[in-house]
């Protein structure tokens, strides 16, 4: 199977696309051999775990690469690497993942400054997250108030 999104699609259409147009496989049968058109490679087990985790973040809430890494027993860079090639935008809302200091560090494979980070800031603002321009990080930062008030952690599984 092949993901619907490809790197040739302009970012603006990815951001504005309807979630109904994005196929997200569930279960091992649908996922086996699934190719990511953004990377040209099969989606790894780790990437599936990251995408499943991100899919659960509600609109209007954020989490950090470090928080996801702790939950998945991984590293923030590995989480960022999986999200950099996320073929399931916007269904897998990677825009809701930020650096531990609140800065918007990357989006749609772009880091630093640029139109992709502007898109990420716009998406977060549209969900009620307070974003401010920040010259210290050369981009945008989420206010400390919203980092505390709107942080999301995956609920712990309760064993019976």
From TrEMBL:
Pfam families: DNA_binding_1. It catalyses: a 6-O-methyl-2'-deoxyguanosine in DNA + L-cysteinyl-[protein] = S-methyl-L-cysteinyl-[protein] + a 2'-deoxyguanosine in DNA; a 4-O-methyl-thymidine in DNA + L-cysteinyl-[protein] = a thymidine in DNA + S-methyl-L-cysteinyl-[protein]. The keyword Hydrolase does not apply. Gene3D superfamilies: Winged helix-like DNA-binding domain superfamily/Winged helix DNA-binding domain. SUPFAM superfamilies: Methylated DNA-protein cysteine methyltransferase, C-terminal domain. It comes from the Eukaryota. One of its GO terms (molecular function) is methylated-DNA-[protein]-cysteine S-methyltransferase activity. Residues 45-129 form the Methylated-DNA-[protein]-cysteine S-methyltransferase DNA binding domain. GO terms for biological process: DNA repair; methylation. InterPro entries: MethylDNA_cys_MeTrfase_AS, MethylDNA_cys_MeTrfase_DNA-bd, MethylDNA_cys_MeTrfase_DNAb, WH-like_DNA-bd_sf. PANTHER family: METHYLATED-DNA--PROTEIN-CYSTEINE METHYLTRANSFERASE (PTHR10815:SF13). This is Methylated-DNA--protein-cysteine methyltransferase. The lineage of its organism: Eukaryota, Fungi, Dikarya, Basidiomycota, Agaricomycotina.
């Amino acid at each position: 199977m092949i993901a619907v999104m490809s790197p040739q699609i302009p970012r603006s259409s990815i951001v504005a696309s309807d979630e109904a147009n994005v196929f997200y496989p569930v279960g091992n049968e649908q996922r086996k051999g699934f190719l990511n058109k953004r990377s040209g490679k099969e989606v790894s087990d780790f990437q599936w775990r990251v995408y499943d985790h991100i899919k659960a973040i509600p609109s209007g809430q954020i989490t950090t690469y470090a928080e996801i890494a702790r939950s998945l027993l991984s590293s923030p860079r590995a989480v960022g690497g999986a999200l950099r090639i996320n073929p399931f935008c916007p269904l897998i809302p990677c825009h809701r993942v930020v650096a531990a200091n609140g800065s918007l560090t990357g989006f749609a494979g772009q880091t630093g400054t640029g139109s992709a980070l502007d898109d990420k800031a716009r998406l977060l603002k549209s969900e009620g997250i307070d974003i401010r321009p920040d010259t210290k990080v050369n981009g945008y930062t989420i206010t400390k108030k919203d980092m505390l008030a709107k942080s999301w952690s995956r609920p712990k599984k309760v064993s019976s």
